[in-house]
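Q: I'm teaching a short session on how sequence maps to structure, and I want students to see two examples side by side rather than one. Could you give me a first protein with its sequence written out and its structure tokens following it? Keep the formatting plain so it prints cleanly on a handout.
A: Of course. Example one:
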Amino acid sequence: QVQLVESGGGLVQTGGSLRLSCTASGIIFSNNFVGWYRQAPGKQREFVATITSFGTTSYAGSVKGRFTISTDNAKNTVYLQMNDLKPEDTAVYFCHSLGTWGRGTQVTVSS
């Protein structure tokens, strides 16, 4: 059974940074496609970033240049480094792989 657990969210001021982690059981991240998504209040869940088993990354236009997705194969963990955070980045952030979603971690950016 695949389980994904996100962590690292919190409250940060505009311009600050956070690093989110997604730790998996039942799946080897280095062999699979992993994505980060987010859902703001009253809005649909949206794509943020993905990383393939080859290490190829892709980003939403709104976060490109500010967010970085990476994998630590030894820890079977995928990270989302978020810099220069803005109030519009406020959302619950979810990890996704092989059809499984984590429960999410809240990120709140104050203005």
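Q: Perfect. Now a second example for contrast.
A: Example two:
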Amino acid sequence: QVQVVESGGGLVQPGGSLRLSCAASVFPLENYAVGWFRQAPGKEREAVSCISSSDGSIYYSDSVKGRFSISRDNAKSTLYLQMNSLKHEDTAVYYCAADLAWDDTVQALCSTLLRIYRDWGQGTQVTVSS
């Protein structure tokens, strides 16, 4: 069972930045597919960004492409999400995932993680408001 602990959320004004962190109880992290997901009030959880374990390819959802950046520190088994130019619609609880899943493309992998992952953490709240 993988344990993940998300942190770094908070209240930020539109246009601001936040950096989320996810400490995962797995090693080495590069052997795992990892990703960030979010759930806004009244909405289903959605994929934000993922990194494939096979080749390190990265997927971003269209809503965050160009504004968010995912990265990982394999030595620390930690995943990051740098969020810039935040918008009101980015308000959500953000969750991370680490799994041995794989798929044909990193976009498909992100969808797979969203569908099968069961070891969700508590998440970290991000609120974008003026």
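Q: What should students look for in example two?
A: Point them to this: The beta strands are 4-7, 10-12, 18-24, 33-39, 46-51, 58-60, 68-73, 78-83, 92-99, 124-128. Also worth mentioning: Helices lie at 106-116.
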